[in-house]
C-alpha cells in the first residue's frame, strides 16, 4: 500500500521543539496518533501505548512511542507498523480495516497545511471550493496528500466522479495543520477535519 508523505504540524498552543513541535519528546521516540473514522468510540493499544475511548470521527494528539514492530488489528484487518525514531505515524481505523500513514514534518510556520486521507474505494480530487482552486488533482484510495496554503478563511473539500462529497469551512491559522478524512458508510460519503497536536506524555 502506497503511503504518501503528508504534513504534520502541532497547534500553536503547544510549546515548540525545533520551533514548531512539542518539547520533552525522547530522541529515539516516534510520535503516533489514532484517527477514528468509524461510528463508534474505540480504545486501541499501540504496543504499550493505550489510546482510550477515541470518539467517532476524531483524531487524538500525537504521543511519543518507543518500540519496534507492532501489529494493529481492527475490523478483521491487520497492519504491521514499524514507527521510526522521530517519525509521525497515524493509525487510521475505518469501518472495514486499518491503515498506517507516515506523516511528514512541516517546516513552514508562515502558512497552513491541508491534508487529505482517502479512505474511500475510489480516487478523490482535493479542492478549495471558495476561493476556487485544485489542491491535489488525484488522491488514490488508501493514500494521503498535502498542500501548503495561505492562512486565510477557506472552504475546502473532496470531489468524487465530479461531485463534491464533503466540504468544510475553516479560518486557517499560520503554522497549523488540518487533516480532512474522507470515508464511506455504505453508499454515503462522510468526512471530518482534525487539527494536529502533540502531547509530550
Write the layout of secondary structure elements.
Elements: E1 6-8, E2 30-36, E3 42-46, E4 49-54, E5 58-59, E6 63-65, E7 70-74, E8 77-81, E9 88-94, E10 97-105, E11 112-118, E12 124-130, E13 133-139, E14 144-149, E15 153-160, E16 163-171, E17 177-185, E18 188-195
Parallel strand pairs: 1-10, 2-9, 11-17
Antiparallel strand pairs: 2-5, 2-6, 3-4, 7-8, 9-10, 11-14, 12-13, 12-15, 15-16, 17-18
Q: Roughly what is the average pLDDT, rounded to an integer? A: 88
Number of domains: 1
Shape: globular
Seen as an oligomer or otherwise, the chain set is: single chain
Structural class of the secondary structure composition? mainly beta
The CATH class assignment is Mainly Beta
The main β sheet shows up as: 6 strands, mixed
Number of strands: 18
Uncertain spans: 1-23
In sequence order, what are the helices and strands, one letter per element?
Answer: EEEEEEEEEEEEEEEEEE
The percent of residues in helical segments reads: under 10%
Termini gap: 31 Å
The fraction of residues assigned to DSSP E strands is over 45%
**What is the CATH superfamily classification?**
Carboxypeptidase-like, regulatory domain
CATH topology: Immunoglobulin-like
Per DSSP, the total helix count is 0
Please name the CATH architecture. Sandwich
Amino acid at each position: 500500500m502506497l503511503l504518501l508523505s503528508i504534513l504534520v504540524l502541532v497547534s500553536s498552543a503547544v510549546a515548540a521543539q525545533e520551533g514548531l513541535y512539542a518539547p520533552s519528546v525522547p530522541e529515539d521516540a516516534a510520535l503516533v496518533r489514532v484517527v477514528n473514522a468509524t461510528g463508534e468510540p474505540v480504545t486501541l493499544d499501540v504496543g504499550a501505548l493505550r489510546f482510550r475511548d477515541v470518539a467517532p470521527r476524531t483524531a487524538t494528539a500525537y504521543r511519543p512511542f518507543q518500540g519496534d514492530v507492532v501489529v494493529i488489528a481492527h475490523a478483521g484487518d491487520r497492519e504491521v507498523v514499524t514507527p521510526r525514531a522521530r517519525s509521525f505515524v497515524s493509525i487510521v481505523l475505518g469501518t472495514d480495516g486499518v491503515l498506517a500513514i507516515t506523516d511528514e514534518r512541516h517546516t513552514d510556520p508562515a502558512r497552513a497545511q491541508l491534508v487529505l486521507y482517502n479512505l474511500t474505494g475510489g480516487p478523490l480530487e482535493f479542492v478549495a471550493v471558495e476561493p476556487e482552486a485544485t489542491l491535489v488533482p488525484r488522491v488514490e484510495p488508501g493514500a494521503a496528500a498535502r498542500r501548503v496554503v495561505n492562512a486565510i478563511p477557506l472552504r475546502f473539500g473532496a470531489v468524487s466522479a465530479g461531485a463534491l462529497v464533503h466540504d468544510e469551512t475553516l479560518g486557517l491559522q499560520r503554522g497549523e495543520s488540518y487533516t480532512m478524512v474522507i470515508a464511506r458508510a455504505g453508499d454515503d460519503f462522510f468526512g471530518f477535519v482534525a487539527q494536529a497536536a502533540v502531547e509530550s506524555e
